[in-house]
Write a structure and sequence with these properties.
Elements: H1 2-28, E1 31-36, H2 41-50, E2 55-59, H3 66-75, E3 82-85, H4 91-97, H5 112-115, E4 119-120, E5 123-124, E6 127-128, E7 131-139, H6 140-146, H7 154-167, E8 171-174, H8 181-195, H9 201-209, H10 216-231, H11 237-240, H12 245-253, E9 257-262, H13 266-274, E10 280-283, E11 285-286, E12 292-298, E13 301-304, H14 314-327, H15 330-333, H16 356-364, E14 369-372, H17 379-395, H18 402-414, E15 423-425, H19 431-444, E16 450-454, E17 476-478, E18 493-500, H20 501-510, E19 512-518, E20 521-530, E21 532-535, E22 537-542, E23 545-551, E24 562-568, H21 574-577, E25 583-588, H22 589-599, E26 603-604
Parallel strand pairs: 1-2, 1-3, 8-9, 12-14, 15-26, 16-24
Antiparallel strand pairs: 3-13, 4-5, 6-13, 7-9, 7-10, 7-12, 11-12, 15-17, 16-21, 18-24, 18-25, 19-20, 22-23
Helix pairs in contact: 8-10, 8-17, 12-13, 17-18, 19-22
Length: 610
Amino acid sequence: MKKFVVGLCLIIVMMSVAGCDKQSKDKDQDVLTISLTHNNIPLIEALRKEFKDIEFRIDDYYGNNPTEYYSKKLECNDYGDILINTIQLNNETAKDKLLDISGYGFVGNYQTEMLKQYDVDGGIYQLPGPVMIRSMAYNKTLFKEKGWKEPKNHKELVKLCKKIRKETDITPISFGAVGVGYYFTTMTTYAQTKYLTEANWIKNEKNYLKGKASCSHIFADGIKMVEDLIQANAFDVEKNEDFWDTQAIEYMVDRKSAMVNIWACQDKFIELTAKSKDEFELIPFYNNEGDALLGTIVSAHVGLSKSLGKKENKKKLENAIRVMEWLAKEENMNYMKSGETEIMPLENADNSDTAEVYSDVWEANISGMKAPMLYTNYEDIMIETAEFIKDAMIKGDDLGGLVELIDKRHKELLKDSGENAILKVTDRFTHEQTIKLMADVILTNSKADIALLSDSEDLKDGVPNRYGVGGKLYEGNYYSQNINVCVPGEGDKIVTTTLTGKQIRKLVEEGKYETATRVDDESKRGSAYFRYLWTGMDVTMKDGKVVSMKLSDGKEIKDKDKITVAFSDTDIPEDKKKDMKLKDQGITCLDAFMKYIEEHDGVLSPKDVK
């Protein structure tokens, strides 16, 4: 009887545990994790209000390289159920990491021309959020005064630029020339006006990316069109070299240029032209035959994790599809919108909240070509290509040799199996280990006793900390394009100051005071405290209060002791900075990290963090 009772009790316990496990798994099906490039509080609040039966957990990042950071997260399979971020994944990654949603009805809510951007061998793995338009603009009043006609194809644009140079001292086309990416974008945009009209462009692109064909099949026409503009003396790079988009637009508004290429800052076009007596108009980019293209900047690409397709995630998938259906309606996608220049890429969207000049050019080209800025898949050749084009624009040279340069560089990097990596990370760091590692980077490149570095992973009351460390280091190789993902402000300098033990204790207990524009309302500023982590000392805390602080040599830090502390120069509490006497250590955080990597023979491990 005793054995029977004991056995019965074990069965009851096992059934109870199994029941708890089942309840836990069932509950997990009502949880959706959203990976966001940057937190969107209005969107998250709207989702929580609409879907009260779903628990939304947020995975976001406030570092200085979100595109590359999320690429790394995807590579290492550390991402949420729903991805809402700036990345349009390359085809292979999309098929490997995301769920094909092409068979769901909500996909039909999106404009056909936009869906073409997301077609991957007949599948759809991401969908667009609000869209900003990349286009040209011209001073309509000035054109009327001078008797110039709006160009309707590329040949007419080239001819007009020559005419403007002959008749005036006005720059024909201004553009933001400070970033090298602008030069690459100029060439690839004109290339898209041509190769997107060809039936076999997808095949040509695939062959190039695999190293089986020359880039001439996709870029040759764009290179020739830019060369035509260079020979027509269309640009003044040396006058525009310090310009971002805002300054380039302002240059046209002030009649110093007749036209402008607007890659970004579309809201500034509305703001600056509204103050002028002149009238302005947006126009597409054209090829020689007159086919029109509008460039697109999609503020957020939305996709679902492939793991949702597993049988055990049936309910989780149903919940995710409900969210996707909700987002595919104009009134709900509005929560992702950041300004009046954005277009909703949905069929029958009225875009009544969009500035008329932008909705007009969109409607005029509703069934025409639309294409994103080429970035994904072309990171390897972007910088060298851009520098080549910039040099030719300044010197007035042709672009001979550019195709060969691109082909050579692309094939070199295709063969790279890691030997060109700057850093190899052996195992995944935790977020705290990453902060402590970066604090150690700062300390070892300064004349200080300790270093403090803040945590920027989470928002506090809608306020982001943009100057600490967000994210974590993942296993694998790091290259020039992503080596900075966890660096606290790559251009920031390392500085030191002298603080008392009492001041250090207060910083450790309270964190860094930061004021910033609120993520949920850009018209308002908020304030918050963000925790510091440290290296060079051992700290014992209880209930959020410091019990003891000791330097790494074991010496206790007392309230009146004077200690040299190292910081990143933007990571100092705003309310303390003016009272600190800062000493520049003569090195930036990024350069310090590169030096640190070299000292560790290009390999880092979580074991390196003390």
